[in-house]
Amino acid sequence: MSEVRATKRRRGRPRGGAGDTRERILSAATAEFAEAGYDGATMRAIAARADVDAALVHHYFGTKADLFGATIDTPIRPDIAIRTLLNGPLEDLGERIVRFVLDSWEQADVRRRGLVLLRAGLSSRATAPVLAGFLARELLERIADRVGTPDAALRASLAASQIAGLLVTRYILRLPAMRAASVDDLVAWLAPTVQRYLTGDQTPS
Amino acid sequence: MSEVRATKRRRGRPRGGAGDTRERILSAATAEFAEAGYDGATMRAIAARADVDAALVHHYFGTKADLFGATIDTPIRPDIAIRTLLNGPLEDLGERIVRFVLDSWEQADVRRRGLVLLRAGLSSRATAPVLAGFLARELLERIADRVGTPDAALRASLAASQIAGLLVTRYILRLPAMRAASVDDLVAWLAPTVQRYLTGDQTPS
């Protein structure tokens, strides 16, 4: 709080309290992510846009991923969840990922806000790169590191393609058979696919 | 042309030529699909909205699928293509589908218009059911018929989930590794997945 007041006094403008500063940083971050993309956006540029010190942005929101998570109002932080998921044996990582995604999206609040994010991320030429940048940097690179093969970037992206298709067909298009299937049934079908992409052969045995 | 004129005279209103009638039917169809969904929309209701005889709608546009194809201005008619794809051996249907989708979307005009359709179909609660209805009725039911097992509806939808994820990650999100991969490489990775969904075991051997 004292930092906020100090900033306010130093800038010499009338402003509201900490809530206003937080909102101003969030607005600046949303604009900066939209313009520069996830990778191009810097905490320094966001701070400049919000007319505050960069230290204050870190103080309020932590890392760039944390700040992005705050701008999209997500009830699940996939970049944090993935660390836990990667912490188990590689040979059933596919199943852990598919089950985590389904268990999360079956919760009404996750699904509701996830749908807003996914629809926004897929709907325009402007928003897709921001979502893609976040996914690439915070999820796919970590998965690829864990997989560790020379073609790991493609493997992680192939896994993402099946997860994206699951979300699109079950929760956006709501194809009747995808809606009707149980989580266990979908895990049984999809986990071997994701696992093959991550650690299996291009030509299945 | 004479039918159009007859209609015009009978209705007794000043109107333009056949081009106007065609456009009026297309507008009526777009509105009807949006309101009633693909399955709910009837040629009769579209004709009534356009204030023409239903026979005229058939005369200009053929089937409901043809008319839907016209409203979305698609350079590829997946409902027609699928008949050709289904006309080969079932054991490599997965490869034929994946290769057809990639070969089509690698063409600039297909990709451009496909992206407009896909973004529109995924972006809102209103448009998703129309796209889903068309996919379900004109593609998935035919694939399921060809597969012929009791769980064929789910199998066809699982195949659709991988195809949807391919389109989303390569053409909308443009994940770098998905962009960089060759068509042959993607076919080699994805065809076995789609084939397993269509004809393989839930638990791979």
Automatic annotation (TrEMBL), chains A, B:
Which part of the chain engages DNA, per the record? 42-61
Q: Is DNA-binding one of the keywords UniProt gives this record?
A: yes
Which InterPro entries does this chain map to?
A: Homeodomain-like_sf (IPR009057), HTH-type_TetR-like_transc_reg (IPR050109), HTH_TetR (IPR001647), Tet_transcr_reg_TetR-rel_C_sf (IPR036271), TetR_C_16 (IPR041678)
Residues annotated as signal peptide: none
Q: Where is the region Disordered?
A: 1-21
User: PANTHER family given for it?
Assistant: HTH-TYPE TRANSCRIPTIONAL REGULATOR RUTR, TRANSCRIPTIONAL REGULATORY PROTEIN
The protein here is known as TetR/AcrR family transcriptional regulator
